[in-house]
Write a structure and sequence with these properties.
Layout lengths: L10 E2 L19 H6 L5 H18 L12 E4 L5 E4 L9 E3 L2 E5 L6 E2 L1 E5 L2 E7 L6 H16 L18 H19 L2 H21 L3 H21 L5 H18 L8 H15 L13 H8 L9 H8 L4 H28 L2 E5 L4 E4 L5 E3 L3 E3 L3 E5 L2 E5 L4 E3 L4 E5 L3 E3 L2 E4 L2 E5 L3 E5 L6 E5 L4
Parallel strand pairs: 2-8, 9-21
Antiparallel strand pairs: 1-6, 2-3, 3-5, 4-5, 7-8, 9-16, 10-13, 11-12, 12-15, 13-14, 14-19, 15-16, 17-18, 18-19, 20-21
Helix pairs in contact: 3-6, 4-5, 4-7, 4-8, 4-11, 5-9, 6-8, 7-8, 8-9
Length: 451
């Protein structure tokens, strides 16, 4: 299944060593004049997408958030760093051409689906190409447009990983919450209230199992959940089709994603948002940092939640095929524990290479992340650039809990400035070298002048 943009690479960067295709360089085997006539981004097509975003934002007239989502946008080709803007920048870095503005993003600027300050302008940055599906394209356009005004709304850009959602009870209870939310989205008034109550009971119980999980879940739901809600809300779909879109997501994605530690907010955020629209239409004007969408919904639906008994939880879970879900999650848990043990063997117990994180830019698949308790998070696939060079990982890497280092299995091959090991390759910048690490068999990268 082709996942939407939000589940693709979060952040992409070009190689700081200059091995990537530079703006204006011809593709291998292509005539230079052909490349000059065909920029990496079709300018006419880009203009139509800018116009599409403008129409979506102007149709809202700033009503949803009290601010217009029509604003500066950049389309970026991640391979070449070629950029197309819908307006001029404040420093003259972009040049007008064919009704848009073109240029090149500097190597030190991260490329992402995000909001970013560059060349004197606060942009909504989006990776090119845009999704072919019109609805998904509309959602990502408005999602990233919301991130541009997010700080103005007083809502922080917190992006914590929720490691507890990779455990069996974490996954089990959040899926039950999603199933109840899905039922609530399609139910009439009486049935909806019961389904909402079930969702909140499952959510409350899950959070009781993991200390401070309510805080970190809320942070990501307000950051990415509200952005995705905005995307769905302003996608031009009728209200009924918005709810149906979310229901279809709940039916497919939970079983196809490897991890929920970051992606969960894209499910629950829009669902709570649409349910709040029905029960408390003015909720958006009151939302603030630190709020819990589920508590807002409980208040609006006049639900008083009490600590549920084990018998009640089991009884309500059966209304959502809880027994079958528990069995399937048990099977997954066995496989997860074996996978975690394998990652621990190669990234903690075995010989490793340690690289410091100073000013890193990274790309990864958020649906693949694996928490490694006490050590950090495993990134099975990762592209990471830092002062020391560029690391490409296609099997396993570990970013420490304090985000000060990235770890890969010890190198097997060293050729000048290129190192490689089991599923990874590192290209070093001048001034950095490989030295022995703290344990026998370990290695680390250090700056030559720092010795």
């Amino acid at each position: 299944m082709q996942f939407p943009v939000f589940l693709s690479l979060l952040l992409l960067t070009s190689s700081p060593t200059g091995h990537g295709l530079a703006l204006g360089d011809p593709q291998e085997g292509a005539p230079k004049d052909a490349v000059a006539k065909a920029p990496p981004i079709d300018l006419a097509l880009a203009k139509t997408k800018f116009d599409e975003a403008k129409r979506l934002a102007q149709a809202d007239h700033g009503r949803l958030w009290g601010k217009s989502l029509d604003g500066p946008k950049l389309f970026v080709d991640p391979r070449t760093r070629f950029v197309v803007g819908n307006q001029a920048d404040a420093e003259g870095k972009l040049k007008p051409e064919a009704g848009v503005f073109v240029g090149s993003l500097p190597p030190n600027i991260p490329i992402a689906n995000t909001a970013y300050q560059w060349a004197g302008v606060h942009w909504s940055m989006l990776l090119w190409p845009m999704p072919d599906d019109k609805t998904e394209r509309s959602i990502i356009l408005m999602h990233e447009s919301w991130h541009r005004i997010q700080a103005d709304l007083g809502l922080a850009s917190n992006d914590p990983l929720n490691a507890h959602l990779d455990t069996m009870p974490g996954r089990y209870w959040i899926q039950l919450e999603w199933r109840a939310l899905s039922r609530a989205l399609l139910s009439n008034h009486a049935e909806r209230k019961t389904a909402i109550e079930d969702a909140l009971l499952f959510r409350q119980h899950r959070r009781s199992l993991f200390k401070k999980s309510d805080l970190i879940e809320n942070q990501l739901e307000l950051h990415e959940g509200l952005a995705e809600y905005t995307g769905v809300k302003l996608s031009a779909l009728p209200d009924a089709e918005q709810r149906l879109l979310l229901v279809k997501r709940f039916e497919k994605w939970p079983t196809e994603m490897k991890s929920y530690v970051r992606s969960f907010a894209y499910f629950s955020g829009p669902a709570y948002g649409l349910l709040l629209d029905e029960t408390a239409p003015s909720w958006i004007g009151k939302i603030k940092a630190g709020d819990d969408l589920s508590l807002l919904l409980a208040t609006a639906a006049k639900l008083k939640l009490e600590t549920p008994s084990e018998a009640l939880l089991k009884e309500r879970a059966r209304h959502y095929d809880g027994d079958k879900l528990w069995t399937s999650e048990g099977t997954r848990e066995g496989a997860r524990l074996k996978r975690v043990a394998a990652f621990r063997q190669i990234l903690v117990e075995g010989p490793v290479l340690v690289l410091p994180l100073v000013k890193s830019q990274r790309s990864f698949n958020p649906s693949e992340l694996v928490p490694l308790e006490g050590h950090g998070t495993v990134y099975p696939t990762l592209t990471l650039s830092d002062r020391w060079g560029k690391l490409e990982v296609r099997k396993a890497s570990l970013i420490s809990t304090d985000h000060t280092k990235v770890i890969v299995p010890a190198p097997k091959k060293v050729e000048a400035s290129v190192l490689s090991g089991d599923g990874w390759e590192l290209r070093l910048e001048p001034g950095w070298k490989l030295v022995k690490g703290a344990r026998s068999g370990d290695w680390k990268i250090v700056e030559e002048k720092s010795e």
